[in-house]
């Protein structure tokens, strides 16, 4: 009894061990390739993640997942064969089942094909802020079948790649700050323009924010005549993903500078009128 076990282990056990080791080495090699891709894509800027870095992380993840699935399948079939299980019926059965499932798995195939083109065309990468079919969020994970988004409220959205009809990428290559600044009619447009441009220049020269600003925020022109204000459009170019933080800081500085310059930010006035029945007059009581 023990002699047979020893003989079997000496013959098949060693082969199984070698197969497992080879599978592990293949997975390890794929993992190192992914890490090398990420390392080669890294640049000197440690504060922001470039498009190359995002794409490298996405490709590394897909390579690791695909390699593991392939290796696990091959190793499992080889081990079954070594322990004496005839895999021919399994392969034939898998073919029949696969054919049957294939008719009902058209959606899965469509998702996988769409996922492949999303990755190859670099439509978006992990870390990008995108809007997919009207659903917005930061890309947490991309697989061949699904894309996982997390919005600002922390809600996770899992979207099938085959269902994605429209992609809006807010952070690819670079982003823009686009704002309309209200100003009163009784102020000189040129004066307000100079103040806004000066705020944009100083923000771009800031020790911290200068790392994220590619082109200073400046006035494009008079955008609109409002009911109680003119609206001045400004625009600046920033590194991807930083448009929101830069816009908030710019608004804060505009408010402080307008206060110092005596430029009033227009707001709606409400007048409440009380009807005086005795005298038949309308008297404003609050403003």
User: Helix tally?
Assistant: 6
Described by the principal axes of the CA atoms, the overall outline is: elongated
Q: Uncertain segments of ≥5 residues (pLDDT<50)?
A: none
Termini separation comes to 102 Å
Instruction: Please report which band the strand proportion falls in: under 5%, 5-15%, 15-25%, 25-35%, 35-45% or over 45%.
Output: 15-25%
Which fold name fills CATH's third level, the topology of the largest domain?
Answer: Helix Hairpins
> In CATH terms, what is the architecture of the largest domain?
Orthogonal Bundle
- Mean pLDDT, all residues: 82
Sheet of most strands: 5 strands, antiparallel
Task: Output the structural class.
Answer: alpha+beta
Number of strands: 10
Over the alpha carbons, how many angstroms does the gyration radius reach?
Answer: 31 Å
Description:
- By secondary structure, the protein is α+β, with helices and mostly antiparallel strands.
- The protein folds into 3 domains: 2-104, Helix Hairpins; 123-169, Roll (SH3 type barrels); 174-261, Alpha-Beta Plaits, CATH 3.30.70.100.
- 49% of the residues lie in helices and 24% in strands.
- The chain is built from 6 helices and 10 strands.
- The protein has helices spanning 2-41, 51-82, 87-104, 106-120, 189-204, 243-261, and strands at residues 129-132, 135-142, 146-150, 156-160, 167-169, 174-183, 213-225, 230-239, 272-276, 281-286.
- The strands form 3 sheets. A 5-stranded antiparallel sheet has the order 4-3-2-1-5. It has a 3-stranded antiparallel sheet with strand order 6-8-7. The chain has a two-stranded antiparallel ribbon with strand order 9-10.
- A hairpin with a 2-residue loop joins strand 1 and strand 2.
- Helix 1 packs antiparallel against helix 2 (51-82) and helix 5 crosses helix 6 (243-261).
- The radius of gyration is 31 Å and the shape is elongated.
């Amino acid at each position: 009894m023990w002699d047979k076990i020893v003989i079997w282990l000496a013959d098949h056990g060693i082969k199984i061990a070698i197969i497992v080791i080879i599978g592990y080495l293949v997975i390890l090699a794929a993992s190192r390739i992914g890490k090398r891709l990420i390392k080669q894509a890294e640049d000197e800027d440690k504060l922001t993640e470039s498009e190359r870095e995002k794409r490298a992380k996405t490709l590394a993840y897909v390579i690791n997942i695909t390699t593991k699935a392939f290796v696990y399948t091959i190793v499992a079939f080889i081990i079954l064969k070594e322990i004496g299980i005839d895999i021919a019926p399994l392969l034939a059965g898998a073919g029949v089942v696969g054919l049957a499932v294939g008719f009902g798995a058209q959606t899965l195939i469509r998702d996988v094909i769409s996922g492949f083109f999303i990755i190859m065309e670099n439509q978006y990468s992990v870390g990008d802020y995108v809007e997919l079919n009207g659903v917005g969020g930061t890309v947490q994970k991309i697989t061949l079948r699904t894309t996982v988004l997390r919005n600002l409220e922390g809600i996770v959205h899992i979207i099938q790649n085959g269902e994605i009809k429209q992609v809006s990428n807010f952070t690819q290559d670079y982003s823009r700050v686009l704002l309309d600044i209200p100003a009163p009619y009784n102020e000189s447009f040129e004066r307000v323009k100079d103040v806004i441009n000066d705020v944009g220049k100083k923000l771009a020269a800031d020790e911290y924010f200068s790392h994220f600003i590619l082109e200073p925020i400046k006035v494009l022109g008079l955008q609109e005549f409002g009911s109680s204000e003119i609206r001045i459009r400004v625009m600046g170019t920033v590194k991807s993903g930083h448009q929101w933080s830069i816009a908030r800081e710019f608004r804060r500085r505009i408010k402080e500078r307008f206060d110092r310059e005596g430029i009033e930010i227009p707001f709606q006035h409400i007048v409440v009128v009380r009807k005086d029945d005795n005298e038949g007059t309308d008297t404003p009581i609050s403003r």
